[in-house]
Amino acid sequence: MKETWRWYGPLDQIKLSEVRQTGAAGIVTALHEIPYGEVWQRTTIAKRRDKIRDAGFEWDVVESLPLHEDIKRGTGDLTSLFANYRQSMANLAAEGVHTICYNFMPLLDWTRTELNSPAANGGTCLRFSAFRMAAFEICMLGRAEAENDYPTDVIAKACEWYVASSEEDQKELLNSIMSGMPGAYDRFDIVGLRRALDTYRGMDAADIRSNYRRFLHEVVPTAQDLGMRLCVHPDDPPRDILGLPRIVSDADDIAWIMSAYDAPANGLTLCSGSLGANPENDVVDITHKHSNRIHFVHLRNVRKDPDGSFEEAEHLSGDTNIPALCHILLGEEKARKSAGRPDWQIPFRPDHGHELLTDPQKKTFPGYPLIGRLRGLAELRGVLHALSA
Ligand code: DNO
């Protein structure tokens, strides 16, 4: 498997020369500065690619070519949005980038309630606490229906927290929940978030699914023609959030997506951490079932609590059997290679990492410190070496 590293471009505090020292061979990045829905122009793509090449890497994966919210909502000038998406894909392909990760999460990308939760050996990790999320939804946002989404003991704890919280605590919680959106994306305040949620009012999973099916039918044929691989990232956490239906959360969802447009270009980003946060998900089984459609992999682990909370564990501890996933993926690579596919190698990246040692001194994006990820990469490299021997 090809070792890659997520780099946020010129915004990133971690320089490509530092990434070199991790031993990673490829880069995962995006043109974060371009507003959602606009075309990624060839010259801009080429300039970023050349910067990556000059540092000794290939730009292996785009993460993400984001979807404008209108596509998920099924509103607005969809004809132009689909045309722009196809044009961006064509421009990327023309500049030699062929794998595109994206997600179909309404409004928010990944969601955590704490960005600096203490980890067992020192250092900190990202955490999702059910009661903090409940406190946010019920007490801060005032979303009435949220009371139906949590058990009473979680709601009681949420209210306790809220009553004891300072303005600073509430600000920090809002900031943590909004942090899954690096780059030039929208950050909502409470009023803005209420307004944004209203734009989805009345929509259910079936509506979002039909918008997703339309998107796939609009773009996958072009991806096929261009020899590109699209790969959807699972919802994180893999469940409805803020009353917004999420449709890329479990085995049934993924099976639905793969059959909604049955072609190799309609693929999956296997994110072990996202899928692993749902106790119903057997990540090893999902990997096994869809290995021929996995075009990109995020390796990460989570430790779950019974109430739906979870924390990001070290890469090789936690609830998911990462070596078992690696074993399946190495087998899949072998099968692709013997079928003579030039693109047999599957790029993966150590997804997230704890903040360790001097990491806090660099103001990196939450979940993306240098040393914590380097530790994860080194451990995963060891597993892959051992399994390939
Ligand atoms: C979090 C990431 C996600 C991912 C997007 C893909 O760290 O895994 O933000 O990049 O959901 O579109």
Give a description of the structure.
With 389 residues, this protein is of the alpha/beta class. It has helices at 16-20, 42-54, 69-73, 78-94, 130-140, 152-164, 167-178, 190-198, 205-226, 251-260, 272-276, 283-290, 322-338, 370-388; strands spanning 2-6, 26-29, 58-63, 99-103, 114-118, 124-128, 229-233, 266-271, 294-299, 301-304, 310-313, 347-350. The protein has an 8-stranded parallel beta barrel with strand order 1-2-3-4-7-8-9-12, surrounded by 4 helices. It has a 4-stranded antiparallel beta sheet with strand order 5-6-11-10. It is globular. The mean pLDDT is 96. The structure holds D-mannose. D-mannose (DNO) is lined by residues 63-64, 101-103, 109-110, 180, 233, 271, 298, 351-352, 367.
Please supply descriptive tags for the structure shown above.
single chain; four-stranded antiparallel β-sheet; alpha/beta; eight-stranded parallel β-barrel
What is the count of helical runs? Answer: 14
The neighbouring-strand order within the major sheet is 1-2-3-4-7-8-9-12
Q: Which molecules other than protein and nucleic acid are bound?
A: D-mannose
| Stretches with pLDDT under 50, minimum 5 residues | none
- Describe the global form: globular
Output the helix-strand order.
Answer: EHEHEHHEEEHHHHHEHEHHEEEHEH
Strand content is 15-25%
- First-to-last CA distance: 13 Å
- Could you report the average pLDDT, rounded to the nearest whole number? 96
Strand runs, count: 12
Largest sheet: 8 strands, parallel, barrel
